[in-house]
Amino acid sequence: MARDVAALLLRVVAGLIFLPHGWSKVMGEGGSAAFAADIAASYNIPAFLGHLAAWAELAGAILLIAGLFTRVDAFLLAATMFVAAFVVALPDAMFGAPPNAIRAFVAIRGIETPLAMFAICLALLLVGGGRFSLDHLLAGLLGKKKAAAEAAAVRV
User: Fold this and answer.
1) What is the pTM of this model?
2) How far, in Å, CA of 97 to CA of 84, rounded?
3) Domain residues of the chain, as ranges?
4) 3-state DSSP call for residue 3?
């Protein structure tokens, strides 16, 4: 039960955090094309990955909250946050670091939010959506349908 509640909390909180970020990337001025072009020009990331990241944040947020395709959503969002942390935020943080700063602290502070979201998504990838998810509901419905079909086959 605690694992299911934990999965629910992680899904809903992560979804609520990703939702406005995805919304601004997809529905903002220029849409996902503007975001994709920006990260392609600034970080040499292929534009199609920018589109994928923007849509993963928007659609993935909604699907995470519902608990539908949780592991797929979590994988796509974890990949997005890995890039956000280590390809985008880390070099930016290190570039602006004062000369006397403790570089490890500058690095951690620069990537703390995408790193936390990466960890949340990895946890959801491992544990799934839990009992309070559409994934669980659909698995139960499909399991009953499969059992009924197997029982019918045995009678024949």
Assistant:
1) 0.87
2) 18
3) 2-155
4) helix
